[in-house]
Structure formats: C-alpha cells, structure tokens
Amino acid sequence: MPTLLVNNQLSHLSFEKFSPDQRLADWVQCYWKIGASGAQTAQFFDEKLYPDAGASLTIDFSHDTPIVSFTFNRHTLAKTFSNHDSLLSIRFAPTGAYHLLGIALHDLAEESYLLGYDFTPRWYSSLIACVEKMHNSPLTSQLYLLEQWLLNQAISNKLAKSSTLQVIQKLIQHKNSATDISKELGLTRRTLERRLKKEAGVSPGQLQQFYRLKTARALLSNSHASVTDIALQCGYYDHAHFTHSFLNFTFETPQQYRKRKILSILT
C-alpha cells in the first residue's frame, strides 16, 4: 500500500504525495493527489511544473465523468489549479512511462494529451475499467487500484531493469560525462544519446541541467547558503552563470525564487 510522504508544499490545494511499491520504484517517483477542499467559493492558484525527465498520468475526478490526461514537459510550465479540483496522478521517473506504458516521449509536444481523444494506447481500456472502480471510492482504495493496475502493466511487459537507468543515475550524480559512460558500456555516444532520447525523451545535457537546477531549488528553499555557494555546489562556473541558467529555466532569479518560497512558508 502506498505510504504518505511528508510534504508541506501546496497545502492550500490539500496536496499529498505517496511512495510507490518497491517493485515499481525504478519507474515511479510517487503518486500525488489534490483534494477538493469543500469550500463554496472557488480559488485559483498558479503553480510551476518543473521538468525532470519524468511524466505524469493524471485522473481528474472533478467532473461527473473522470478525465485522464498524460503530460511530459521539457520546459517549465505554468499550471492553474483550483481548490475545487480533485486530482490523482502517477509521477513517473525518467524512462518509467516508456517502460511501463510504452510511450515514446521524444515524439510528444509540450502539452497535455487527453487519453481516448488525442491518443488511445493499447492499455487504455484496462485503465478506464480501473478508473471506473476508483470513481467515488476512498483515497486508499483509489491508490490501491491504481497501483495494482501499474503492477499488472509491469507483469504484462515482463519489465526488467534497463541499463538506461544506470546511465541516468551517473548523469544525475555528475560522476561521468556522456562520452565516458558510453565508452564504459561499449556504446558510441550517439547510440547512448538516441537511447536516452527514446526512453526518457531528453538529451544527456538536458537531464543534467534538470537535476542541477532541482538541487539548486532545494538548497535555495531549505538552506541559508549564499547564492554563490549554491552555484558552485551545483557545478556552475560562477554566480552570473548560475543566475542566467536559473532565470531561463524558472522565469525567476535565484533571489526571487528564494524570497517567494520563504514567503509561502510564512503565510
């Protein structure tokens, strides 16, 4: 059964995050839900969705008929949520959507796709049958049913750990360059890049950028380190290089991001 993870962010949207079964841990980062608050007046909140080479399969229970969508973004996206939303989502790890669901991410544009309208994958009917059971069920039952559906996908695909996961971990940890990793695996760099793009939808450089900035965002939010120290810790040449990259990626300077996060904690 998925376990609730501690998370104080987005409390205004009744946000909760849950860990996946260990058998799915290589392919699923977490499940998350936004629950309708029950307030009579709808309030709307603009949030940012930062890319990390993961993808999301989201079920919207806010309507009489649930809506299922799939999203993969390579750039930061602005998204508006309401306190009347009732959403449950699978957040896939890099390569997770490819191996569990057979979705080639490199072919997707920067938008949400409605399943059954924009595209209908082979597993669509089994997911809809699962969603119908989930509708109007308690959250614990919804999570259980959704995870069982994912486990069935893993079994039907005879899922085994991909060597691409090793590549991703080394790139994320900045232990090796893409050239060094390709040599270690007996591949050309071009072959490694094609494999990563096919399974994760990104290039090695994009993946490393995502995770350097993810680390930077965490340090800006949760530490008192100076922006210069954070820049050097995350592998940037200097304060100016870091600020330029951060601004292009998040549409805020590091100082603006830190101030906004501190204010959200205090209010």
From TrEMBL:
The keyword Ligase does not apply. Residues 162-260 form the HTH araC/xylS-type domain. It comes from the Bacteria. PROSITE patterns: HTH_ARAC_FAMILY_2. The keyword Transferase does not apply. Keywords: DNA-binding, Transcription, Transcription regulation. Pfam families: DUF6597, HTH_18. PANTHER family: ARAC-FAMILY TRANSCRIPTIONAL REGULATOR, HTH-TYPE TRANSCRIPTIONAL ACTIVATOR RHAS. This is Helix-turn-helix transcriptional regulator. The lineage of its organism: Bacteria, Pseudomonadati, Pseudomonadota, Gammaproteobacteria, Alteromonadales.
